[in-house]
Fold:
Amino acid sequence: MVAALLSVGPGVAQAHLVTSGLGPFYDGALHLLLSPGDLLGVLALALLAGLRGPAAGRLAVMALPSAWLLAGMVGLAVPMVLEPSWPGALSYLLAGVLLAANLPLPPWVVGALAAGYGALHGLLNGSALAAIGAGWPELLGIVTTVLLLTLLISAAVVPLRAEWGQIVLRVIGSWVAAIGLLALGWTLHSAA
Structure:
């Protein structure tokens, strides 16, 4: 009787994800958080959207993750060999320059920039995921993290109207632009 009961029980029981890895969804979330080429642009665009006001923030929160998801699905379905280095660096260089310049952009322009960034990086991420045999759960982890970061950061910046706060945001934009310029130069030098 004891032998029969023991044979029905599981061979291995794992109560926490610590022992089995984080799982594909969390691998995708961590991929974004550990990829400066993706993360810097998301941060710069979220800060820019918050700086431009609530309407721009709402548009960015809708456009960035939506475009990332749609383009990521295309990348998963039609895996391509893409060189992510220079387009990615150029995209967050542009986001950093726009944040540093603090131009009075209308909300629809901020939404369009967010959608373009999301489409580019979603396609790059989807293709990279397909190339390594990963799929939907990883993409959903990335997109959920993009959504949460954009939402929380832009919402935190919207009420910030003090001059010193805007200067801090512009300095952050200049650093993102500088990192983008460095990455772009490094990529172009390596290709030559």
Summary: The chain is about 80% helix and 0% strand.
